[in-house]
From TrEMBL:
Pfam families: Peripla_BP_2. Belongs to the bacterial solute-binding protein 8 family. It comes from Actinoallomurus liliacearum. Residues 1-22 form the signal peptide. The keyword Signal applies. Keywords: Signal. PANTHER family: MOLYBDATE-BINDING PROTEIN MOLA, VITAMIN B12-BINDING PROTEIN. This is Fe/B12 periplasmic-binding domain-containing protein. The keyword Signal applies. Residues 68-359 form the Fe/B12 periplasmic-binding domain.
Length: 359
């Protein structure tokens, strides 16, 4: 999900893992840390230790040289930006070049990269990570520390005195021996999962009050949309990323379902056209199934800044004229707001305006 086209093997593996969320979109708490949104904000007491994806992580002070791995995500770097932690970033590799909050594009672009490059598996190889001498390496998924892909393992980093952190809801992603609790957290990824990561960062960096304020503001925006949509019959919403067609075995746009995708749509007052489908939907969906879908609202996901969502919408409407959305020309455009990260509120608001545009 970067501006650069990803290595297909790496990105397909990542999206296949994302599809595991298809089993549901509940709001189960993240069991990978003791941090919950109910915890009262305060000052962090160091040393701070907790379990992260089965690995003990310890901090004697707030990290000051953070390296943020790619993982085809921007949710982590955007969380750092929203919490005012950019001064703590040694190097960032996350970048889409497009966002539901346009100010994020410039904010991410302004961050240092220290000339880091990615390997064929589309993330920073071990030797570059170790040479940069960070004090914390952040990955959106456990696979970011997989030696088989040329990445530094968490054990290697620990031996070099470097902490590592996986976004807790994604512990099971890229982790062959994931626990049942980690798998459950991934299946039930939701907007709250985005908030939980910011809360965790608040604790690690001793900005708990700031994190609580940011989360409260974002949660209030989501709840305001939900209140307006209450009682209205949900319309069927299809979310598709044409620029990610490499994810589908039949060359179709990547249709997203389950987990946080369903939760974002539900918060906006809609229902995913493929809600309840199996975890392989994104990869296996065929043209016949797509044609048979009930689609009142089309959501075109933007993957790179050079895409033209209006043209993509017209192309899909022409290919599937039987959709109600095709007959009315009803569509919305989102980018990072549909994924794990702090932009969920923006996506919910954008979708709600279209879902309820005709009352």
């Amino acid at each position: 999900m970067l501006v650069r086209r990803p290595n297909l093997t790496a990105l397909c593996a990542f999206t296949a893992a994302l599809a595991l969320t298809a089993a549901g979109c509940g709001k189960a708490p993240d069991r990978s840390t003791s941090v919950t949104r109910e915890a009262a904000p305060g000052r962090t007491a160091y040393p701070l230790t907790f379990d992260n994806c089965g690995q003990k992580v310890g901090f004697t002070r707030p990290p000051s040289r953070v390296l943020i791995l790619n993982g085809t995500s921007v949710g982590e770097v955007e969380s750092f930006i929203m919490l005012g932690l950019t001064g703590r970033i040694l190097a960032n590799v996350q970048h889409y070049g497009v966002s539901d909050d346009p100010s994020m594009v410039a904010a991410i672009k302004a961050l240092p990269t220290r000339g880091l490059t990615t390997n064929k598996n589309f993330d920073v190889p071990a030797e570059q990570v170790l040479a940069a001498k960070p004090d914390l390496v952040v990955s959106t998924w456990s696979g970011g520390f997989d030696a088989r892909n040329g990445f530094a393992t968490r054990e290697q980093l620990a031996a070099a005195g470097i902490n590592s952190l996986v976004n807790p809801v994604n512990c099971a992603m890229g982790k062959p021996n994931a626990s049942s609790a980690e798998k459950e957290a991934l299946r039930h990824a939701s907007i709250e999962s985005s908030f939980q990561f910011m809360t965790l960062l608040g604790r690690i960096f001793d900005v708990q009050v700031k994190a609580a304020q940011v989360v409260a503001g974002l949660r209030a925006r989501v709840r305001a949309v939900q209140a307006k949509a209450a009682g209205a019959p949900p319309r069927k919403v299809l979310i598709a990323y044409p620029g990610m067609s490499m994810m589908n075995a039949n060359g179709l746009p990547a249709v997203m379902t389950g987990g946080i995708y369903d939760d974002v749509i539900k918060a906006a007052g809609g229902q995913n056209s493929f809600a309840g489908r199996g975890e392989d939907t994104t990869r296996t969906l065929n043209a016949e199934q797509l044609a048979a879908a009930q689609v009142d609202v089309l959501v075109v996901g933007v993957f790179t800044p050079d895409e033209k969502p209006a043209e993509e919408a017209r192309r899909l409407f022409a290919a599937y004229p039987q959709w109600q959305a095709s007959k009315t020309g009803t569509y919305a455009v989102v980018s990072d707001g549909a994924y794990l990260g702090p932009m969920n509120a923006w996506a919910v608001e954008k979708l709600a305006k279209v879902i309820h545009s005709d009352g």
